[in-house]
Input
Amino acid sequence: MDALARLIAEVEARADSLATGRDWPCHAGCDGCCRRLAVIPALTGAEWALLAPVFAALPADRRADIRARALALADHPAGALVSCPFLDGEAGLCQVYAGRPAACRSYGFYRGARHDAFCGLVEAALPALEADGPLLFGNQDALDARLDALGGRVDLVAWFRDGPGAAG
Ligand code: SF4
Ligand code: SF4
Output
């Protein structure tokens, strides 16, 4: 198992251990986190390699729509929240779910120093979720450091403009 696969397996085990048996707010169709990204996503090469075949398997019209939305982010005002181009906004579902980035898998289950690293819906549900005692969230800062060690990041705009996403 490679480093990214190991990291993802750990994140998913953490998410399962937190959500199983609890009324956890994350569910299919809850897409607030995907609509309000703090920055344009920048993924490691290993994450792009995981996502690319899932993107390539989408119908051509969906790929074209995602690419257009990603490229439009080049003009996105600095500091404004970003709606992820991979989101199917009508269904509230990720169109590359099986290959989604690590941060999408950890969000809601990991906490970090940055306030935007944690979901407000989960925060609001904490009193009920922790009724039987404090929960052990993952460490988002440590996760980010491990991701950074996997290599340089390429942001969404660059991947679609200059990288494999430009090919169609
Ligand atoms: S992290 Fe928050 S917004 Fe995202 S799915 Fe979970 S509850 Fe919904
Ligand atoms: S890649 Fe998928 S899960 Fe991640 S922010 Fe975009 S739509 Fe949401």
User: Anything to note?
Assistant: The beta strands are 42-44, 87-88, 93-94, 110-111, 138-139, 153-155. Residues 3-19 form the longest helix (17 residues).
